[in-house]
Design a protein that fits this description.
The complex is a heterodimer of chains A (783) and B (181). In chain A, helix 11 packs parallel to helix 19 and helix 15 runs parallel beside helix 16. Chain A is of the alpha+beta class and 783 residues long. Chain A contains 20 helices and 28 strands. In chain B, helix 2 packs across helix 4 and helix 4 packs across helix 5. Chain B has 181 residues and is α+β, with helices and mostly antiparallel strands. The mean pLDDT of chain B is 84. Chain B is globular and about 45 Å long. Chain B has one domain: 2-Layer Sandwich (Alpha-D-Glucose-1,6-Bisphosphate, Chain A, domain 4). The chains are: A alpha+beta (783), B alpha+beta (181). Chains A and B meet through helix 9 of A and strand 6, strand 7 and helix 3 of B.
Chain lengths: 783, 181
């Protein structure tokens, strides 16, 4: 056996981190090109207004200003901002690069200044005079659907973007026959994805070769290239997109924004490189928001706690325009609202509306946190209603582990699962029975602790190409090239575009194990359309499941060729050979070996080529998955609520996640930590607030409560491992699981703590003031 | 943002009314007011300097008086904008005679937008209250002045005048005394 220990499955420190934590990483804003110009965007201060006039005279006169453009200057000269998602019957608003005639949200780009320094550009935007005629703003999504709501897009006549209904007579029947019907109204507040690095784009145009290079802080360099080429009417092979170091995306950068099209457009127009970097305040107003749903839920329940049907009406606050996937994101919510539970019949209705706000789109979890919240709140509401233990209600309704693959009522096929396994482990970790006794004892002392469960599932690893919209102009597969260099080092060119997920580490672990080379001999490259074959990108917890599988396929191909070469050199049959320790050896006799380097040299014909074998040692693979993946787990939050102040403190936080096989446990933990933090943030702290005139009140980090480390619990993590049969690695995905699982666990915990007061609902975020009010109202006092 | 309240002035109603339609004297009392000029009948162009946390700036705009019912009522419409956003609002002022003094009742609705709202919103209510307080303090001083007497006005003076008044009221409340007129 090889002496080198296996890399896969071990806690290898992220190879990315030294450059990140020592300031060596190069982000888009770090780029400096000769003759570079800087773009600044003038944004609407009105949520809804007609533009009467724009006077750019003073801005243009400022020394250093190269150009000022308004919507009228560029209208029709480029394609619009793309939305690739399609929902039957949806209205697709025209999404211009700069507002023309009208503004529809606070932060909408109205004009740009391009100048020789970023400060001049910024100063000049202040000199642009815009005369607006304010119009009534549409802010409340439920009111937006009403007839008398002022249409945001006049041509549509109303603000209903689409209405879809999946009726199901079985659901109506079940609701009639139910012993109890549990009803919930849930508000999924808007959230800011809040990448540490705001959006940024730089472009350069080579007039001679007619090649456009765009650096952008994006999760999807190839899809962005396709869209830039289309919008700017360039052949796609004349556009190169590079995603340098990307400081967080969380779905927000799974988009093509106005500025990402304007920067290359103006670069070509002016013949000089242009840079634009977003300010934090712009990020609040003009980067997509997540969530934004009002959910009305009904669940038909039998006396024993069995849920027989679920029905949802989802009001979707889409904002004024559509971004890349805007109308599609909430469709995950309806489909998955029964979660890990065998609810025989479900039906849901979506009422999607335009509002005078920034668009919503994918934010860590993207439609699934909203679904898991429904399922997990329903389970607890059933327990409260029937005075059952929430653990028992979950056990009663779980899809049993013997039922996989499981066809869901929404037509999905859950790949694998053992929901009770994760629940049992989490209960054991928290010592559930003892904890319930402690809770009882503390209540007698006037102290209120709450135990909140969430046995979530989610869908990830998107996915079979048929599930992705044709307008995306690429499927749901992923790609990878493995190149063994003549020196024996290995370069991986992955189609995914990691930006914090750690695949430079996990992929190198896989290469090291498969080819028997040292991990330091492996370089993983990504995020450059000039280097990589087409790839889809990093989102929806797909990096390892899809990118990793295409890597595995390429490694297999490289190994097969290396075996043939070794077989020729060693005069042994290919199937008798094994890789390890930088060698290829006979399985039956490890002393009969040649070095991997000898094989590589033979492959590249250092002395002489190998007969009948094409020179070189590299392989490219495109992996098309047969199904999506369905990770799961149980999170348990234990909180204490101060009934006098409404303040919430964590006592414990347990997370047992099952993402199938694990390549690097440390990376999995990192993902779960961050995911939980963002999920807790939704439960307790964060909320985008627009006032009744559509003014963004949470427009800075002073007003938007991104939690600090001290506001987080100590997270006790563990896993169960239920591999998926869908891919050869048996891996699912874990990038979003923490966010999806944690929010309902925390809310359930707080409501459990407040059970003695009879508090049944508090809208998120559960700020102390809201908790206090809920207690006062339940007590019958005046809040 | 809704604004409303009352204020009693130790002066005859006519005198208070005249003050309230005199742009020069109003300008001197309005905190940060750099300009208030008649541009038409009951219509004024204004320039006011407001600093609210990180959003400081000059706002230019129009003030219009409407529904004039001397000496008891008018409606005020304001519309201003600056680099940091806009202010738009309307309100009514009513004057009633009360034991030889004048009771001013005001009520209005002000909308702020742009960075002023997204960064300064938390401070807007407090700032508005303080500005109104400063204005009334300054106005009181104007009303008490003899005809022709020049009253010292200006942001700094009015700020201290306002603080002193607050202090006086607090002390009076503390000792259960009536605020000296």
């Amino acid at each position: 056996m090889p002496i080198t220990p296996k890399m896969v499955g071990t806690r290898i420190k992220r190879r990315e981190d030294p450059r990140l934590i020592t300031g060596q990483a190069i982000y888009t804003d770090d780029l400096q090109l000769p003759g570079m110009l800087y773009m600044s965007v003038l944004r609407s201060i009105y949520a809804h207004a007609a533009i009467n006039s724009i006077d750019i005279t003073n801005a243009k006169a400022l020394a250093g200003v190269v150009a000022v453009y308004t919507g009228a200057d560029i209208d029709g000269l480029t394609g619009p901002v793309p939305c690739v998602a399609e929902v039957p019957g949806m209205k697709l608003p025209h999404h211009p690069l700069l507002a023309v005639g009208k503004v529809r949200y606070v932060g909408e780009p109205v004009a740009v200044v391009i100048a020789t320094s970023r400060y001049v550009a910024r100063d000049a935007t202040d000199l642009i005079e815009v005369e607006y005629d304010a119009l009534d703003a549409v802010v409340d999504p439920e009111k937006a659907a009403e007839r008398d709501s002022v249409p945001i897009h006049e041509t549509f006549g109303d603000n209903i973007a689409f209405r879809t209904e999946v009726p199901n007579p079985a659901v109506e029947q079940a609701l009639k026959e139910a012993d109890t019907v549990v009803k919930l109204r849930i508000v999924q507040q808007r959230l800011v994805p809040m990448a540490m690095e705001p959006r940024a784009t730089v472009a350069q145009w080579d007039r001679g070769t007619k090649q456009l290079t765009v650096w952008s802080s994006t999760q999807i360099p190839h899809l962005l290239r396709t869209q830039i080429a289309e919008a700017l009417r360039l052949p796609e092979n004349h556009v190169r997109v590079i995603a340098p170091e990307v400081g967080g995306g969380f779905g927000a950068k799974l988009n093509v924004y106005r500025e990402e099209l304007m920067v290359p457009y103006f670069t070509m127009k002016l013949g000089k490189p242009v840079k634009w970097t977003q300010a934090r305040r712009e990020d609040f107003a003009a980067t997509i928001h997540g969530r934004g749903q009002v959910q009305y839920i009904e669940a038909a329940v039998k006396k024993d706690g069995t849920v027989t049907a679920m029905k949802a009406k989802l009001v979707l606050d889409l904002g004024a325009y559509f971004q890349f996937f805007t109308p599609m994101i909430p469709s995950f919510t309806g489909m998955l609202m029964h979660g890990a539970y065998k609810v025989p019949a479900i039906s849901f209705e979506q009422i999607a509306v335009f509002t005078n706000k920034m668009a919503t789109d994918a934010y860590r979890g993207a439609g699934r946190p909203e679904a898991a919240f429904i399922a997990e709140r329903v389970m607890d509401a059933v327990a409260t209603e029937l005075k059952l233990d929430p653990v028992d209600v979950r056990r009663k309704n779980f899809i049993p582990k013997t039922a996989f693959p499981y066809a869901t009522p929404a037509g999905l096929m859950y790949d694998s699962g053992n929901y009770e396994g994760a629940l049992d482990k989490a209960l054991q970790m928290v010592d559930y029975v003892a904890l319930r006794k402690e809770q009882e004892a503390l209540r007698k002392q006037g102290r209120y602790i709450g135990i909140g469960l969430s046995s979530y599932i989610e869908i990830c690893g998107l996915g079979p190409s048929v599930l992705l919209p044709p307008k995306m102009k690429a499927g749901g597969w992923e790609s990878c090239t493995v190149r063994v260099d003549p020196a024996g080092t290995v370069t991986v060119f992955t189609g995914i575009s990691p930006h914090g997920q750690g695949q430079e580490t996990s992929f190198a672990q896989m290469v090291a194990d498969e080819l028997g080379v040292g991990i330091d001999d492996v370089v993983v490259l990504h995020g450059d359309t000039g280097l990589m074959q087409y790839g889809i990108g990093t989102f929806g917890s797909r990096g390892m499941a899809l990118g990793g599988t295409s890597l595995k396929m390429s490694l297999d191909k490289v190994k097969e060729k290396a075996r043939k070469i070794a077989s020729h050199l060693m005069e042994a049959p290919p199937e008798s050979l094994e890789f390890g320790d930088g060698k290829i050896f006979l399985k039956s006799d490890e002393t009969k070996a040649i070095t991997f380097q000898q094989v590589v040299e033979a492959a590249y014909g250092f002395k002489a080529g190998v007969p009948n074998i094409e020179p070189g040692l590299e392989a490219t693979s495109f992996y098309e998955p047969s199904n999506c993946l369905f990770p799961f787990g149980t999170h348990i939050a234990v909180v204490e609520v101060d009934a006098d102040t409404g303040d919430i403190t964590f006592r414990r936080y347990i997370a047992v996640d099952d993402c199938g096989n694990i390549i690097n446990p440390m990376l999995v933990e990192g993902q779960v930590h961050g995911g939980i933090a963002q999920g807790i943030a939704q439960a307790l702290y964060e909320e985008v607030v627009y006032d009744e005139n559509g003014q963004l009140l949470t427009g800075s980090l002073m007003d938007y409560a991104v939690p600090k480390a001290a506001m987080m619990p100590w997270m006790e993590l563990d896993n169960t491992v239920t591999p998926t049969p869908v891919n050869p690695l048996g891996v699912k995905g874990v990038g979003e699981a923490g966010t999806i699982g944690s929010t309902p666990a925390v809310v359930n915990a707080v409501l459990d703590a407040l059970a003695p007061f009879g508090v049944k609902n508090i809208d998120m975020p559960l700020r102390p003031e809201r908790v206090w009010r809920a207690i006062q109202e339940a007590k019958g006092g005046h809040a | 943002m809704k604004i409303n309240g009352t204020q009693t002035f130790p002066a005859a109603r006519q005198r208070v009314w005249e003050f309230l339609i005199d742009p020069q004297r109003l300008a001197r009392c309005l905190p940060g007011c750099e300009k208030l000029e008649a541009v038409g009948e009951n219509e004024y162009a204004s320039q006011i300097n407001v600093g609210l946390a990180a959003v400081k700036g000059v706002y230019t705009g129009k003030v219009k008086l409407d529904e004039m019912q001397p000496p008891s009522h008018y409606k005020m419409l304001i519309d201003g904008k600056g680099k940091q956003g806009f202010i738009k609002g309307h309100g009514t002022l009513d004057l009633a005679e009360q034991n030889g003094q004048t009771l001013l009742t005001y009520s209005g609705d002000v909308q702020v937008g742009g960075p002023l709202a997204s960064v300064g919103q938390r401070m807007v209510d407090g700032a508005a209250k303080m500005m109104i307080g400063q204005f009334f303090t300054a106005m009181e001083a104007e009303l008490q002045a003899m005809p022709g007497e020049e009253v010292r006005q200006g942001a700094a003076v009015n700020f201290w005048r306002y603080l002193l008044k607050l202090l006086r009221e607090k002390l009076a409340a503390l000792f259960g005394k009536k605020t000296p007129a």
